[in-house]
Specification:
Length: 830
């Protein structure tokens, strides 16, 4: 049997399956999706089996055998292997990069090399101290360890390897192993043990105590716990083991990040009429078992989560599994609680705040069918379930569903693809759907589909219990200044905050920090501190007084004197959450503020603790960045304030208005979700902007209509699709000439297909190459950057075209090579 293996070398030359012979003893174990170690170019590399065949494509004499099988159960399933191929085609990355994205980091094995003393090694063939040491290690040791111990014998080792006096082995070691704990078991029935305990001599009182404790506990116990509870020792337990009363075994442990937490079980709520209609539509689709994508457009507080929960329940009832994606940032304890509360042990949770070990164990619960629901951020879309019935993407408009490093996939598109493989339903949920999704859901269904398809748009325009959406006040901050108010709080917001403090109700304050940074500038000459390697300002960190580059990590101490004019008026600028916090303390003495931003949430579980404190009403104000805008559901929040709405409006990003509208709508939705009515204040310098005015009136339709007009006029999605290609090199001249060559080759290829047509031509197929031009960040890590933007429309396999155009540029000698990075459907073209 031949295994076709993708080896873990992410280069173009090796981006294809290689043939290996499957040794007889592995034949019944190796499957598509198996992880193996294979010899490759003199090393052993990790690889994935992507195909099996009876005969090899190469000369059988040149075939090498698979050297090891790394897991008894393949970590990947055939559908994921196929999906990886699709990912690599669509997002122009190597197959192995796509495969690696699907498994937990713990399984990204590293080769380790061992040396073994050959039995037939002759005396004197190796330096004696080396041979002796190896013998003392049982004849084998890690090559690394050997060389570290005897650096002077490196030559001897090499010649030993050549003559065969020592033999080299390589093996793939996982970064992390399954955690095992020594566990104590009783070997007999209760009566037998009790009798034996009675018979123990008086001096073995401790042993008796241990036995009786085990009986009281009534089940296996971890050795450590047993010793701690009985104040005994390992030797006591070992003695009982010797008497055959106890047995000690290593038992696999699941690292459960939620261990010891009680989740109050919840029952399905009676659905409102609006929820019921949507629920029934979803359930019909799940039952049909055919791929189907729906957009659940429900205003904030309309009860989307309850619909998800009941739909999942239905899906599980069919014996199928469900995946729920939520943005990393809103994977809050509240969200986890709602799922654990409904489905208990059947849920695996995957987010980036888990340790590698915890994540690995959650993943194993999925792979071993212990759970039926996976809830997690973006990468949970690769959960290795075998029969998926339903995929839910909550807050589908969130940009965090797009991965910014290779493979640069969008989880939404992967979900649709995976659903097609499984015949699953996809529910995209949001109060503010992305314009692309909204347009797709409104597109007329292809005619001729049997029975006529049901509409893909499921609206829930009302809040649960008929609660109103909160009224929104827009405050023009220019007017405030004109009237002599220099504070960062408008009079209105100040007044309402005072009122909430008096009533003991809670407020959420959002500091929109997108596009904001704290940078160092000289007030005398205008000098700003720049990164010496990148074309970007350094960001100032107040705590450490260090300036740091966000692209390359370069850090330096903030100057006290301007390096350019020696003036001492060098300051940092920008409004951070810290400044707002200080201001709050000044204006409202005694106010209790919880600040939530990157600085206060770095510690593990910090996010969770802060939200719990707020939920327990230990603070009056929750102040934060984007983190506070989503998913929170606190009954005593009756005021939401946005400190400055427009910081994100002025970014040179075609999605700036959409992002602002979404953020404002989401954060406004945190107010008045329960019995107490809410109010919202938005402070802005551009009160007339349509993103602000439509958010003020909770008018998604009006926003979309206006936004679509802009997108159409400028030629942006959803009227076309984008691909961003960034090229970089140390030499500007080389880069610019390679960039030109690439762009013209791409144009030629498009021309040959007859699709090189400008977007505004009105033809159904169009493909336009813009650039190359210098990237907005024109230098990064000492490399110059150029970019091409491709806009296209119609059924064009643009990825294939780009891969073809790239081929001659990426196959050359690596040193002179210009680096290319392809971003399909980019979120930002900055
Ligand atoms: N059928 C129902 N009966 C009573 N209460 C409900 C029902 N459905 C949902 N709720 C409650 O309504 C509140 C809002 O629901 P939920 O948080 O699911 O809204 P959402 O649509 O997800 O909102 P957002 O998009 O703002 O996060 C929650 O407290 C929830 O428990
Ligand atoms: Zn200066
Ligand atoms: Zn830098």
């Amino acid at each position: 049997m031949i295994a076709k293996v993708i080896v873990d070398v992410p280069s173009r030359q090796t981006d294809r399956p290689f043939d290996y012979l499957v040794p007889f003893e592995m034949e019944s174990w190796i499957e598509i999706g198996s992880r193996v170690g294979v010899p490759f170019g003199g090393r052993v590399l990790q690889g994935f089996v992507v195909g099996l065949a009876a005969e090899a494509d190469i000369d059988p004499k040149r075939l090498k055998p698979v050297s090891e099988l790394l897991d008894p159960m393949p970590p990947l399933l055939p559908d994921l292997v196929e999906l990886a191929k699709w990912l690599s085609d669509k997002y122009c990355c190597s197959w192995t990069t796509a495969l690696q994205a699907m498994i937990p980091a713990a399984l990204k094995g590293k080769a380790e090399r061992y040396v073994e003393l050959a039995e037939e090694a002759e005396e004197g063939e190796l330096p004696s101290e080396l041979a002796e040491w190896l013998a003392s290690q049982g004849g084998t040791a890690k090559l690394e360890a050997l060389l570290e111990r005897f650096p002077q014998h490196a030559k001897g080792v090499k010649s030993g390897l050549r003559t065969g006096a020592i033999i080299e082995h390589a093996s793939i070691k996982d970064r992390l192993s399954i955690k095992k704990m020594l566990t104590v078991f009783l070997t007999a029935e209760e009566e037998t043990i009790r009798a034996a305990a009675e018979e123990l001599p008086a001096r073995a009182a401790k042993q008796r105590e241990v036995l009786l404790y085990m009986l009281r506990h009534g089940g296996p116990l971890q050795m450590q716990a047993l010793i701690a509870a009985t104040e005994g020792s390992a030797s006591t337990v070992r003695a009982l083991e010797g008497k055959g009363l106890l047995e000690l075994r290593e038992v696999e442990q699941q690292r459960d990040p939620y261990a010891g937490r009680e989740f109050v079980r919840t029952k399905p709520l009676p659905l409102t009429a609006g929820q019921q209609a949507v629920f029934e539509r979803i359930v019909r689709s799940v039952r049909a078992g055919e791929p189907d994508t729906m957009l659940l457009h429900g205003v904030t507080g309309s009860g989307k989560t309850e619909v998800y929960l009941q739909s999942i329940q239905y899906c599980l009832g069919l014996g199928k599994q469900a995946i729920v994606l939520v943005p990393e940032i809103s994977l809050t304890p509240q969200m986890v609680e709602r799922f654990k509360g409904r489905f208990g042990e059947a849920v695996a949770v995957m987010h980036s705040r888990l340790s590698n070990g915890e994540r690995y164990d959650e993943w194993r619960k999925i792979r071993s069918r212990q759970v039926q629901v996976a809830i997690g951020a973006r990468s949970a879309i690769f959960a290795p379930f075998e029969s998926i019935g339903l995929i839910i993407i909550d807050e589908e408009h969130e940009s965090s569903y797009k991965q910014e490093e290779s493979p640069k996939y969008h989880a939404r598109d992967v979900a649709v693809r995976r659903a097609r493989q499984h015949g699953a339903a996809v529910v995209l949920g949001s109060a503010t759907p992305s314009i692309e999704t909204f347009a797709a859901a409104n597109r007329p269904q292809p005619s001729g589909t049997a029975g006529g398809r049901e509409p893909a748009l499921l609206p829930m325009p009302e809040r649960v219990g008929g609660r109103p959406l909160p009224p929104v006040d827009v405050i023009d901050m220019r007017e405030e200044l004109r009237d002599g108010n220099r504070s960062m709080f408008s009079r209105k917001l100040h007044e309402l905050l005072t009122d909430r403090l008096e009533k003991g109700e809670q407020s959420v304050l959002l500091l929109n920090r997108r596009g904001y940074s704290t940078f160092v500038m000289c007030r005398s000459c205008g000098y700003t501190a720049q990164c010496p390697h990148c074309d970007i300002s350094l960001t100032y960190h107040q705590k450490t007084r260090v300036m740091r580059c966000h692209y390359c990590g370069h850090a330096e101490q903030a100057p006290t004197k301007c390096p350019s004019c020696e003036s001492e008026h060098i300051r940092y600028f920008g409004t951070g959450t810290q400044r707002v916090e200080e201001e709050l303390a000044k204006l409202f003495p005694g106010i209790r503020v919880i600040r939530m931003d990157v600085d206060t949430t770095t510690e593990k579980n910090a996010h969770e603790k802060l939200l719990k404190q707020f939920g327990d009403r230990k603070a009056d104000v929750l102040l934060g960045t984007q983190m506070v805008a989503k998913g929170l559901d606190f009954p005593y929040v009756t005021l939401v304030g946005v400190i400055a709405a427009d910081t994100s409006l002025n970014l040179p990003d075609f999605r700036a208005a959409e992002r602002t509208f979404q953020l404002l709508t989401q954060v406004a939705g945190r107010a008045g979700r329960h019995h107490l009515p809410g109010e919202v204040v938005i402070q802005t310098y551009s009160p007339e902007h349509y993103a602000v005015t439509t958010a003020q009136h909770h008018d998604y339709a009006a926003f979309i209509a206006e936004e679509l007009r802009h997108r159409g006029a400028m030629g942006y999605p959803p009227y076309c699709r984008l691909i961003l290609i960034t090229m970089s090199h140390e030499q500007l001249t080389l880069l610019s000439s390679v960039g030109e060559q690439f762009a013209s080759r791409l144009r030629e290829l498009a021309e040959e297909q007859g699709i090189l047509v400008p977007l505004n031509s009105g033809l159904s197929k169009a493909f336009d190459v813009l650039g190359p031009v210098a990237s907005p960040i024109s230098r990064m890590k000492d490399r110059y950057r150029f970019q091409c933007v491709i806009k296209y429309r119609g059924s064009i396999d643009a990825s294939a075209l780009i891969r073809e155009a790239l081929a001659p540029f990426t196959d050359g000698p690596p040193l002179r090579q210009v680096q290319f990075s392809v971003d399909v459907d980019p979120q930002v073209i900055l």
